[in-house]
Amino acid sequence: MIHTPLTRRHWLGTAALGAGACLLPGPRAAAAANEGFRGENDHFHFRIPSAAEPYVDSQRDNKAFAFQGRKILLSEDSGKTWPHQADFPEAQNITFSVILGNGNILFATRERLFLSTDNLRSHREIIVKRPDGSDYRPHKPVDPEQPGWYFHSLDGEHCFEVDGREMLVWGNYCNVLGGAVPVNIYYSTDNGETVKLAYSFGQNPKFQQKGAAPNAPLLGDPSNSYIARHVHNVTYNPQEDAFYACTGDIDRGDGKEVHWLRGTYDAQADRWDWKPIISVDSNSRFKSGGINFIGDKVYWIADANGRRINHTHDRGIFTCDWKDLLDYSKHQMVFHPMYESANMLCQDGVFIGTHCAPASTFVNGIIWSSDHGKTWVQYDLEVPGPRSGVRIMRKNSDGWFRMDLRKGWIERAEVLFLKPKA
Asked: What are the tens digits of pLDDT across the range 51-64?
């Protein structure tokens, strides 16, 4: 286990105010927020666009999808220019988007899903299908301003190559803001033209609509005894041709909400087989996210909290052979960030994780390894204030990772881009 001392808390402010670079203290840094932030440290460059720039919600290679005001935008040069734009009155309610391999863009507001197949010249609503082929419609909210986040995700990568074709699979991180909502896993095998339910969790009594009529149907699948508050992460292990999903949050008296599920997909039958493989309380390394399958290994980062056991929480960054996932004795803790986190992504040997700001002494904590997880450091970017990084996405064509920065834990704030140094 490698314990790396916390890196000096600082950031390097740059060219928005002038051509030079200088080291600025926190209060002065905050004054530059309207012009964004740029900085660097020993491991990466970073930038936070200003509020006047489009909010880049997703990226893939040279493309980026964004919204600004009442418009949606598409860039084909990694966000330098935005030649494709369209009116979209609910732009500020966008909670999810993904750019598919063929160029289609699937995006969602709180409870509605849309697809553009022509670089935003047009878009149409996509109605999710149940396994039996019938329409899966959102519930009618008691409060129209609280329809629930049906499609919002905590993780940022949802496209996987399975048997030579792309599959889109994700789960909704919900029941925090926006109203009560069912907890689901969705999928598409045809570039977003058809989106279906892969799995639906049961009816969680603690996350139902306030003020609903006594006889109103409960949200969730009545036939499923497994309940969750939300989905943390869904990812794919090509070594065994299986998907894994992990959920949160705690046992509120109606059953455990933290599960890992293993799912296999039969393409010929268009049928899923999901099996819960472990269910735990909140103080567990399996209350987690940021699952990355790399060769024969699986890496994940723990969000453990709740009642301490022997004065500690069972958290850190763990790895093992994927076949040994359920054998605690085979787990290796490769780094202990000390604080809750449910987000981590690895690409080209670079691991990026983030702190949950309300639980951390860091203002904007980034966990970093650039040598395949052999050594680790932590940086506190400090700007633009207390933030939690979520929805971490792979590098674009210019080499920049992208993530959302959230106020507290989940309220949308800014976008952060990180570029590894050579």
From this structure: 999 999 999 999 99
